[in-house]
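Section 4.2 – Deliverable D4.2 (structural model, holo form)

The reporting period included a commitment to supply a predicted holo structure for the target in complex with pyridoxal-5'-phosphate. Inputs used:
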Amino acid sequence: MAGGQPFSIENLRQVHAFCKKNGIRVILDATRMVENAYFNKIREKGYQDKSIAEILREICSLSDGCTMSGKKDLLVNIGGFLALQEHEREVFEEARNMVVIYEGLHTYGGLAGRDMEAMSRGIEEAVNLDHIRARVGQIEYVGEKLLSIGVPIVQPIGGHAIFLDAKQFLPQLKQIEFPAQTLAAELYLDSGIRAMERGIVSAGRNKQTGDHYYPKLELVRLTFPRRVYTQAHCDVTAESVEAVYETRKAVKGLKLVYEPKYLRFFQARFERLR
Ligand SMILES: Cc1ncc(COP(=O)(O)O)c(C=O)c1O
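Output (structure tokens):
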């Protein structure tokens, strides 16, 4: 639930009440929830005086459990977890038993002890307000720079990434010429900055007909790692997007030359159209 635009706690409260009434579990994808909690704090009425940890606790209380990829908010290289509420003890026992088959012994779940230690520290550091404010501030900084020169991006600016609107950026390209993938490639050629396509490549194909899905949006996600970039990196990122924007009219699209069977956006290969 926390993967795209942030949700309000009021909205989650309603979802949770509806699901409870209808016997449906609410399992949160808590992967980027710290940033969500930050937006709840600064935007949602009644949360200004609460700490990030308190808001997260409230979000979790409106769920039956969560999955967590520690590589994002929790500041670690590897690891994650599944957490369940006390009333889900049966599911917990089943999941804990499955860990032994698929990951490693239930006491370490396939992780090294040092990685678990790092993640437990990450949990503490991730809820520090200054840290979150600085992180979200970097994204705002680049976003505002891009807006000031007219680059089309999704607004409001998010907490983990800037999304370039490739349909508006490269209006001369048909969707089958992969506008967002093209833009990501142009950016890489200009500066070595790696971005992520979120458009027709990511949408994949209809299993029955084999046709591409044609999503409404063609976006390029510029995701910011935590505690990695300096102000100068942020400037280089904005300058590179600007450089591509200045030459956008001459940009040609791509054709797909290799398509893997699963999750094609990770490994597909393209050639530039002439
Ligand atoms: C919201 C969200 N959930 C889950 C994942 C997947 O995490 P992992 O790479 O650890 O499988 C991601 C990855 O970007 C994500 O953004």
